[in-house]
Amino acid sequence: MLRRMGGDGPRLSVRPTSAGWQVLAAGAAVLFVARLLGTTQFHQLAYALLALPVASLVLGVAGSRGVRFSRSVPPGTHLTAGETSGVVLELSRTRFGSSRAEVVDRLPEPRVLKFPPPAAGSRTAVLEAPLSFPRRGVYDLGPAETRVSDPFGLLGFSRTFPEKTEVVVYPKTHALPGFPLRGGDMEAGSRGSRGQRGDEFASLREYRRGDDRRHIHWKSVARTGELFVKEFSLEAPRRHTIVLDARREGIRINEDEVEDAVSAAGSVLRHLSRERLPLRLLCANAAVDATEFGRDDAPYWESMRLLARVRADGTRPLSEVVLEGRGALGEGVVLVSRTRDEGLPGAVRSLRDAGLSVVVVALATYTYRTPPGTGGTAQGRGEEFDRALRLLEAAGATVRVVAHPTGVGGLSGGRKAVGTGGIG
Fold first, then answer.
1. CA gap 272, 347 in Å, rounded
2. Within this chain, do residues 289 and 377 fall inside the same structural domain, yes or no?
3. Per the domain annotation, does 415 fall within a domain?
4. What is the mean pLDDT of residues 257-267?
5. Are residues 267 and 152 in the same domain?
6. Whether the Cβ atoms of residue 206 and residue 228 lie closer than 8 Å to each other
7. 369 and 247 in one domain?
8. I need a labelling partner for 120 at 20 to 30 A (CA). Which of 87, 210, 324, 325 fits?
9. What is the tens place of the pLDDT at every residue in 154-196?
């Protein structure tokens, strides 16, 4: 995502080069000697030396007025934390300009970029510079300073282009081939099915164990005394909400832990998008930011832009936020949990009783905070974490674990047992 930041027009400054200073010094010295000796030839030489920088100034100002600079990220490029992309820089000059030119641009740190001469018949030089960001977020590129010299190389002309380009750097995501959510449809009426029922009634069939009781046809039960469920002719993908635990817990925040939680949420979003399942994002941060269900890829990129900006500044536990917004969760929910929340098993049970499928991605936060090899401390925290996972599973959730140093890359497999100070 790019957004241009307004500002004043480019500002021009002029300064002599080393060669320019030498010419000015030589002209002044010759003029001084000419004044002492009164020799006409020395006066002519002094005036010629001093006129040369004036000519350079005229040509340089004329040439620098035609300098144009622009930067752009190629269309379709999505900047991702930890990956290298490219930014395209273009520098245009008039025919009075020198072939030597460089740009100091902030990408976002200042970087000196030397431009090649324009191709034959062109006045624009194009340079592609690598662009990399260690973390997600919103960054400003620019301002930029162009530096060109006159044809004689006596004066340097720098023009500042204050315009900035805002770029959104998305969190790093991972493929989740073994994640327990799939697209497509299953048999109508079944609990935890992959399809959401359509609106058009098709037929009745006998009740089978595991069918969703919401689809029981009670009139048939009253008439025959046997259980029947409704089938529908239209099938629609199940909608899922990813809920990110963005609560601030304590004074200091472990940034690696937060980034892995955000990356886990982004990876689940990516998985749902590829499975063509409708999705939205709900953040348990201070503003309780959220996106909406929609069509095509728009909800995915809107959710990823929110993840690029979100901060761990929430004050309420994940369970409270998810229950407050359960009317808009869809048919399934993925909870990315990273702080202690004794109410989470109860919230899972409530969601399951309402017919929603629940997956919990739990961060083993003690693996980020407890140095390896600390013996009993790590083991005790691991056992406490494992007990919390068992409560979630008993409440009806499917559980996956993210732990340091494996991180989100280990999220594809099933839930790993914790209790010995690590993921085993």
1. 23
2. yes
3. no
4. 96
5. no
6. yes
7. yes
8. 87
9. 888 888 899 999 999 999 999 998 888 887 543 323 344 434 4
Q: Who contacts 339 (Cβ-Cβ below 8 Å, separation ≥6)?
A: 245, 247, 249, 317, 318, 365
In a domain, 55, yes or no: no
Number of independent structural domains in the chain: 3
Judge whether 21 lies within some domain.
no
The residue whose two tokens read 């929430």 is: 314
The CA distance from 144 to 87, in Å, is 13
Cα torsion 42, 43, 49, 52: sign: negative
Candidates 35, 54, 53; CA nearest to 43 is 35
Q: Would you give the distance in Å from CA 408 to the centre of its chain?
A: 16
Do residues 335 and 358 lie in contact, with contact meaning Cβ atoms separated by under 8 Å? yes
Q: Which of these three, 189, 215, 233, is where a domain ends?
A: 233
CATH number at residue 131: 2.60.40.150
Its domain, for residue 328, covers 238-410
CB 144 within 8 A of CB 104: yes
Instruction: Tell me the residue type at 189.
Output: G
User: Smallest Cα–Cα separation from 249: which of 237, 233, 241, 261?
Assistant: 261
Question: What per-residue string of b and e applies to 237-273 under the rule 16 or more CB within 10 Å gives b?
Answer: bbbbbbbbbbbbbeeeebeebbbbbbbbbbbbbbbbb
Q: For the chain, how big is the Rg over CA atoms in Å?
A: 33
Q: What percent of the chain has pLDDT over 70?
A: 82
Tell me the backbone φ, ψ of residue 213, rounded to 5 degrees.
-65, -15
Helix, strand counts (H, E) of the chain: 9, 20
d(CA 394, CA 41): 103
Whether residue 299 sits in one domain with residue 388: yes
Task: Judge if 143 and 221 occupy the same domain.
Answer: no
pTM of the model: 0.76
Q: Is residue 141 included in any domain, yes or no?
A: yes
Kind and range of the H or E run holding 55: helix 40-65
Q: What is the per-residue pLDDT across 68-82, written as a single tens digit (0 to 9) for each?
A: 899 999 888 899 999
Same domain for 229 and 243, yes or no, is no
Are residues 152 and 133 part of one domain? yes
* 287 contact partners, CB below 8 Å, separation of at least 6: none
